[in-house]
Amino acid sequence: MTPQYVDVSTVKSHSARLADRLYVPDHKQYVCVLQSDIKLVKGARSSVELRLTGGVRQVVSTHLSQFQTYLNETLFVQVSRSYIVNLLYIDAIQPGSVEVDGLKVPLSPKYREALHRRLTLVRLRRESQRADSP
């Protein structure tokens, strides 16, 4: 009998697809939620609300800090005590908030620097500095 060989790239592809999946409780079953579909996570006491692509919302009975341990650290960043956002869905950043899919999410000073380190921000000189230049 000849040995069967597995294509390494296929295994890596399947592993990546599995890593993107979370199975969250929904009534008497666990439903699959793709992390890449999660736009933001909103914590409220002992539950979190997942806001997904397509306007879908999923509520999970757990604390935000506990749920955060399941999220891909590359995709997600905490921006306030009650919110974690997917970096891929940030539309705009203001001094005290980030905009995700038209929703203004508070950006706490405590988390601002961590967010800025994760993004490529194009920094321009201030207008007053440019006015002094010839």
TrEMBL record:
InterPro entries reported in the protein's UniProt record: LytTR_DNA-bd_dom (IPR007492)
GO MF annotation terms: DNA binding
Origin: domain of life: Bacteria
SMART domains listed in its UniProt record: LytTR
Location of the HTH LytTR-type domain: 22-121
DNA-binding among keywords: yes
DNA-binding listed as a keyword: yes
Coiled coil stretches, renumbered: none
Gene3D superfamilies, per database record: LytTr DNA-binding domain
Keywords: DNA-binding
Listed name of the protein: LytTR family transcriptional regulator DNA-binding domain-containing protein
Organism: Fibrella forsythiae
